[in-house]
Amino acid sequence: MVDTTQMGTPPRKTSLTHSSAQVARRKRKDVVLQGFGIAAILIAFSVLFILVASLVRTGYTAFVQTHVTLEVFVDPGEISEEGLPRGGFRDVLTAALLENLPEADPDEDARAVRNILSNGAQFDLRDRVVADPSLIGQTITLTAPVSDPFDQLNKGGVNRETPEDQRRVNNQEVAWFDTLAEAGLISTPFNIGLFTHADSRFPELAGLKGAIVGSFWALLTCFVISFPIGIGAAIYLEEFAPRNRMSDFIEVNINNLAAVPSVVFGLLALAVFLNWFGLPRSAPFVGGMTLALMTMPTIIIATRAALKAVPPSIREAALGVGASKQQVVFGHVLPLAMPGILTGTIIGLAQALGETAPLLLIGMNAFITSAASSPFDASTALPTQIFIWADSPERGFVSRTSAAILVLLGFLVTMNAIAIYLRNKFERRW
Amino acid sequence: MTLIAFILLAVLATVGYVLNRQAAAAITADGTRLHSLKHFHGLFSLLSVLVPVLVLLCLYLALQTPIINMVTMASLPDGVLDGMGDGAQQLVLAEIRSVSQGRVFGTPEDWKIIAAERMVALYQYADIAMVTMVIILSSVILVLTRRRVTAEFRARQAAETIIHGFMIACSTVAILTTIGIILALAFEAIRFFEMVPFTDFLFGVNWEPQIPIREDQIAAEGAFGWLPVIVGTAVVATIAMLLATPIGLLTAIYLNEFAPRGLRAVVKPVLEILAGVPTVVYGFFAILVVAPALRGAGADLGIGISPNTALAAGGVMGIMLIPFISSFADDALSAVPRALRDGSLAIGATRGETMLKVQFPAAIPGIVGGVLLAVSRAIGETMIVVMAAGLMANLTINPLDSVTTVTVQIVTLLIGDTAFDNPKTLAAFALGLMLFILTLGINVLALRIVRKYREIYD
Amino acid sequence: MNDMRLTERNMTDQKIKMQARGVDVFYGDTQAIKTVDVDIQDKTVTAFIGPSGCGKSTFLRCLNRMNDTIDVCRVTGDIRLDEEDIYDPRVDPVQLRAKVGMVFQKPNPFPKSIYDNVAYGPRIHGLATNKAELDEIVEKSLRRAAIWDEAKDRLDQPGTGLSGGQQQRLCIARAVATNPEVLLMDEPCSALDPIATAQVEELIDELRERFSVVIVTHSMQQAARVSQKTAFFHLGELVEFGETSQIFTNPQDTRTESYITGRIG
Predict the structure, then answer these.
(1) DSSP of A259-303, one letter per residue?
(2) Is residue A3 part of a domain?
(3) Cα distance from B178 to chain A (closest Cα, Å)?
C-alpha cells in the first residue's frame, strides 16, 4: 500500500511562467481543436460564398435583356384593319430587320434573319396595332427583345472563339448582329419583363410574374389559415389546457409534425385535397392550405414560447382585479406576446415561401403563361418556377433560374430582416 | 359567389354584434344593471353567427365538387361507361369538367356536352343554394340570439364558451393532420399492396415502376422492390451526415467555447442564413456547381464519376444540414451547467480539455437527439435529390454511382397527371408510408432523448 | 513523526504563500473590489467573511484567475503566488489553477464515475504514468477528502448519485488530486445539511496540514471554527484582516463590530 505519510510528491517547484513540455503539448492540442473549429466555420462560410457568387455570376445577366430597336413600316399590304388581330406581323418585322442588314439576302436569309428577334416581338407589334389601328401604313419605332442565342452572344455567354459548328450562332448571324450593334440599334436595358411577364417557352420572354403572384396567393392562404388556428391552438395549450395525457399527446403530435418530411404533406394534399375533395390542381389555394398545415407547428411553437415569456405577475395582476381568464389572456398576455408571435409567424411564412416538394405534388409546376387572377386559378410559385427553369435545356434559362433564385432569396432576406427588426425593437427583458 | 357568401356572412355577423349591443344598451337606459358588459352581448351574437355558419360553409365548399361529380356521372346515359375501369371513368369526368369550363379540345361526343351543361347548371344551383343557406341560417341565429338579450343573461360566459370551443378545435387540427396523413397514405398504400404483394415490395431488388401503356403490351410489367431505393436513400443520407456531423459539431464547439463575441455575432447569423436557404436553391447549386466540379475532379484523377453521383446530392445535403446540427449542438452545450465548466477549469484543465472531456460528454444526449433529427431530415429531404440524384434505381453503395432515393421516386411517380388506379401512382404512396414510418420513428426517438436530457439539467 | 510535522508547520507558518496588493475588480463599469491588500499564509486556513454581495467570492476567484472566464470582468493590481505575479501575461492560467485548486459553493461533480471524477485532474496533468499510480492517487485523494470508506465500493458508479455532502467531499478530493498548493473554497458548505457541514469543516482542518486553504463563508461561526486568519469584506473593500480570534473578540473597525454583532448583514 501507499506510504500515507509521503502523500503525494512534494509540491512541484516550477515557475508559473515556465512551460513544461507536457503543458506545451496540452496547449498544442487546444490550438489544434480551435483550428478545426475555425476550419469548420470557414468551410461553412466559403460554401455560402460560393453559393451566392455562383448564383450572382450566372444570374446577373438575366436582370438585363438585349433589345433591338427597329423602325417598322406597318405595311397595309400585310396587315389590314379588317383582318385584325390576324396579319403578317412577323413578315413586317422581318422586312424591318432586313432593311438594316444590307448584306443579307431578302429571300434566302429571311428565315434566319427573323430568328434574331424574339418570337414575342410580333405579339408586341400586334397588340400595339390592335390598340390603335391607325398605325397601319405608318412607320413606328419598336423596341423588342432579341432571341436567346443573340442575347447570350451580346452578354458574352457565347464565346466567339469557339469553332462555328459548336456555337449556337453561326458566323453569318454574328456578323448580322454586329451590323445591328454598329448601327446603334442594340440596347441592353433593365429586364422589366422578368417581373412583368409570366412563364414562356422562350427564355428571353420568360418572367416571374406568374410565379410571384402564385406565391403571393399561396402565402396569403397559408397565413389566413395557419395564423388564427396556430394562435388559437397555442393559447389553448399554453393557458387553458389541463396538464393531462391528451394535451401531452397533442404536444408530441405538434413536435412530430414539425419534423415530418415536406413531401409527405404533398402526398396528403394530393390524396385528400385533390383526389377526395376534388379541389382544382395547380391552384395556389390548395398549395396555401398544404403550406398552412406545415407552417402551423412553427407558429404554435413560437406562440407558446412568446406566451411563456410573459411573466406570471402580469396574469396575476389582471386576475387580481377580477378579470376572467380569457380577458387576461386576450387583453394582457396576447398583446405583450404579439411581437414574438409575429416574428415566429414571419419566419414560418419564409420557410413556406421556399417550400417546393409539396407544391410539385399538387401540380404547381405546370407550364402556365399567365398570372393567376384568383387563388383558384392554376399557377406556379417561385420555388416551383425555379425547379421548372432549372430543368429546361435552353442556355438562357440557366441565368433565368439564378435570377429567380436571387429574387426568391431577396424576398426571404426581407422577411427575415423584418422578423429580426421586430424582435429587436419589441424585445423585452422582464 | 364564394366570395359573396363569405362577405354576406361577415356582414350578418357584424349586424348581430350591433343589434345585440344596442339591445343591451336599451336595457341599461332605465338604469338596470346588466350581468355582462354590452360588448359581450354583441360578441356573443357575432360568434354565434360566425362559427357554425363558417364551419358549414367550409364543409359545403369541400363537399360540393365530389357530390356534383357523382351526380354528373350517375346521370350519364346508360351504357356509355360500360366496361370502363376507374381510370377511364376519371378521364371521362376530367373531359366533361374541362368542357364545362369552356376548354374544348377536338369534338367531344354529344353526351359529354350534355353532361358538361348539366355540370354547369349544377354548379349554379349549388352557388345559389350556398348563398341562400348562409342568409337563412345566419338570420335564424340572429333572431335567436337577439331574443336572449336580458339583464341576467351571462353573455360573457356564453361568448367565452364559444371561444374556448374554437381554441380546442384549433389544437385538434394537429391531431387531425397526423390522422389525415396516416389515413391518406395507408388507404392508397393498401390499394397498392392489393396489386403488388407486400413481400415483393419489401424484399424485391428491382425497382422499375413502368406500367403497360396499352392493354396488349407485355414488355414492361414493372417491378416494385424498394430495396435499391432505400439503399440509395441510405447512401445519400450517409454521405450527408458524414459531412455535416463533424463540421456542425466543430462549429458548435468553437462557437460555444472559443469564439470571441464579435466573431460569434457574425457567424451565428450567417449560419441562420444557410439554414434559411430553400432546398430548391441547394438543388440548383448541386447541378450548377458541385456536380460539374466533382466530375471535373474525377476526370483529372481518372475516375469515372456519374453525372448524378450520390456524392453531389449527399454533399450538398450535408451543407444544408451543417447549420441544423451546429445550432442543436450549440444549444445542448449551452444547457450544460456552468458549474461543470468552472469545476474543470479550476482543476487546471485547458478550455479544450474542459470542452472535450466534460462539456461535450455531458451534452451528448442533446447532441445525439439533434443528429438523429438531422438524419430524419436527410432521409426526407426532397428537392436536392430530385434535382441532383438519379432516377434509375441501382442497387449499389458506391457513392460515385448514380443512385435514387425514396423521395425522388415519390416525386417522379406523381409529377404530371396522375390517375389513382395504377400501381405506378399508388407505389408513391406506399413509399410515402414507409418514409413517414421511418422518419416518425426517428423523430419520436430523437424528441424523447432531447426531452429527457432537458429534464436532467432543468 | 507528528512532532516533526508540527515543527515543520511552525517553521512555515510565517511564510506568505499568496500576496495581494491594490487589487481592483470591475464588472463592466461597476467596481466590485476596491484596492484590497491581503496576505495568505502557507498551511493556514484564511476565512473571508462579509455580507452577501460584498465581493468576497469575486476576490477569491481572482486568486486562481477564474474571473478570466467571465468576459466583462477586469482585474488590476498585483497578486503573487510565491513571489510570482499571477497576472503576468506570460503566466498560463492553466498552470496556475493546477497549483491553486478550487471547490465551489454547489457540489459540481462531473457526470462521470467517482473514479473518473478524481482521476480527471491527474490525467490531464499527466501526474500518473500508469494505471497503478493513478489508482494510488485516486485512493489517496479520496482518503484525504474523508470519503474513501463511503466510496471505495462504488468507484465505478456516477458521482452524481452521491448525497450532497458526499458530492462536496468528492469535489474536494477532485481538487486535491492534482496536488495543489493552495485550495480555494467558495462557501463549500452552504448547500449542505448540518451533519455534512460538520464533516467538511473537520476535513478543512485536516487539509490545513498540507495546503494553504482560503474559505469564503457567510457563517461567522464557521469562520471562527475553522480559520486562523479572517478577512472581513464590506461593499467591495477589505475592512479588517487579522487573527481570527482577534477579529471576533476585539474588532478594530466599527463596521466589523456591527457585522459580528449582527447589526449589518
Answers:
(1) TS-HHHHHHHIIIIIIIIS-PPTT-HHHHHHHHHHHHHHHHHHHH
(2) no
(3) 7
Locate A119 and state its grid cell. 418570337
Distance from CA of A263 to the nearest CA of C (A): 41
d(CA B193, CA B196): 5
Closest CA to B325 of B287, B283, B370: B370
Predicted confidence band of residue B86 (pLDDT cuts 50, 70, 90): low
- Residue A6: per-residue pLDDT: 40
The reply to whether A157 and A241 lie within a common domain is no
User: Any CB–CB contact under 8 A between C140 and chain A?
Assistant: yes
Q: How many domains does chain C have?
A: 1
Question: In the CATH hierarchy, which fold is given to the domain comprising B223-457?
Answer: MetI-like fold (1.10.3720)
Q: Which residue of B has its CA nearest to C99?
A: B348
Residue C7 lies in a domain: no
Dump pLDDT digits (tens) for B322-358.
999 999 999 999 989 989 999 999 988 999 999 999 9
Residue A169, in any domain of the structure: yes
B160 contact A CB<8A? yes
Q: Within 13 Å of residue C13, how many CA atoms lie on the same side as its CB?
A: 10
Q: Which residue of A has its CA nearest to C89?
A: A17
Subunits with 3+ C-beta pairs closer than 8 A to A: B, C
The closest of A366, A351, A344 to A408, measured between CA atoms, is A351
Q: How far is CA A352 from CA A227, A262, A296, A345, in A?
A: 13, 10, 10, 10
Q: What is the pLDDT of residue B177?
A: 93
The per-residue pLDDT for A127 is 83
CA distances from B285 to A211, A356, B202, B390, B418 (A): 20, 15, 34, 16, 29
Whether residue C119 is contained in a domain is answered as: yes
Burial-class residue B349 by CB neighbours within 10 Å (0-12, 13-18, 19+).
buried
For residue range B210-242, what is the model confidence (pLDDT) as tens digits?
A: 655 555 554 456 788 889 999 999 999 999 999
Distance from CA of C228 to the nearest CA of A (A): 23
Of C71, C98, C171, the CB nearest to B348: C98
pLDDT in tens, A126-172: 888 888 888 888 888 888 888 888 888 888 777 778 887 777 788 88
Q: What is the mean pLDDT of each run of 10 residues along chain C (265 residues)?
A: 40 73 90 90 91 87 86 88 88 87 90 92 88 93 89 90 90 91 90 86 88 90 91 90 90 88 69
Q: Residue A76: name the closest of A132, A134, A13, A119 by CA.
A: A134
Q: Which domain holds residue A214?
A: 209-426
ipTM above 0.90, yes or no: no
For strand C45-49 and strand C229-234, is the pairing parallel, antiparallel, or unpaired? parallel
Point out the least confidently predicted range of A1-15, A238-252, A311-325, B246-260.
A1-15
- Cβ–Cβ < 8 Å for C23, C33: yes
User: Which candidate in A20, A36, A41, A327 is best for mutational testing of the B interface (most B CBs within 10 A)?
Assistant: A41
Residue A42 lies inside a defined structural domain of this protein: no
Cβ-Cβ contacts under 8 Å for A5 (sequence gap 6 or more) = C1
Q: Which residues of B touch A62 (CB under 8 A)?
A: none
**Which residues of chain B does A261 touch, with a Cβ-Cβ cutoff of 8 Å?**
376-377, 379-382, 407, 435-436, 439
The C-alpha atoms of residue A46 and residue C124 are separated, in whole angstroms, by 35
Distance CA A154, CA C85 (A): 72
CATH 1.10.3720.10 in chain B, residue ranges: 223-457
Rounded to two decimals, the pTM is 0.85
What's the number of domains chain A is made of? 2
C97 and B261 within 8 Å at the Cβ level: the answer is: no
The pLDDT value given to residue B375: 96
What's at B363, amino acid-wise? A
Question: What's the full length of chain C, in residues?
Answer: 265
